[in-house]
Amino acid sequence: MKKTYVILLEDTEKQLNRDVIARHVSHLKGFDSEGMLIICGPFEDYRGGMIILNCNSLEEAHMLAKKDPFVSEGYRSYSVRTLEVADKSNNFLG
Question: What DSSP letter does each residue of 13-42 carry, written as one string?
Fold first, then answer.
């Protein structure tokens, strides 16, 4: 059964450029086409962003994060958290 994982991306000293942004967007589009992507985006009030995915395992979430050009090319560091989803299907109790 798939679980929901939050990939938190934190800025490094390395400055983004158009080429790496294009590769990052292509990476995200791949998640979307596979039905894995729930939501993603940068934070307004924090230097970083997040990607929320449905994955088979924590290991898979780490592997996918490491393949993101932002991470693999040193533009962002990352951490992964397992999200216990709370919604109407479980009376918002997670």
Answer: SSPP-HHHHHHHHHHHHHHHHTT-EEEEEE
